[in-house]
Task: inverse folding
């Protein structure tokens, strides 16, 4: 499955979250580190859901851009 990841610059670090996976967040000093950390966090989160007998959330968030002038 593919999930949308939002990565934001916060002061001197980056923060990431997955809109379709509530509570799954990560941080890092670089975008690459943040992507690695959110992937690890997602795997742990999904394993926890599986251990609790719950299905993984279905990816449903869509992304697009709006141009303004």
Result:
């Amino acid at each position: 499955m593919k999930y949308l990841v939002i990565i934001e610059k916060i002061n001197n670090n980056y923060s990431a979250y997955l809109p379709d996976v509530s509570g799954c967040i990560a941080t890092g000093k670089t975008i690459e580190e943040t992507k690695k950390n959110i992937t690890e966090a997602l795997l742990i989160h999904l394993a926890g859901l599986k251990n609790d007998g719950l299905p993984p959330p279905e990816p449903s968030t869509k992304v697009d851009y709006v141009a303004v002038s």
Summary: The CA atoms of residues 7 and 16 lie 4 Å apart.
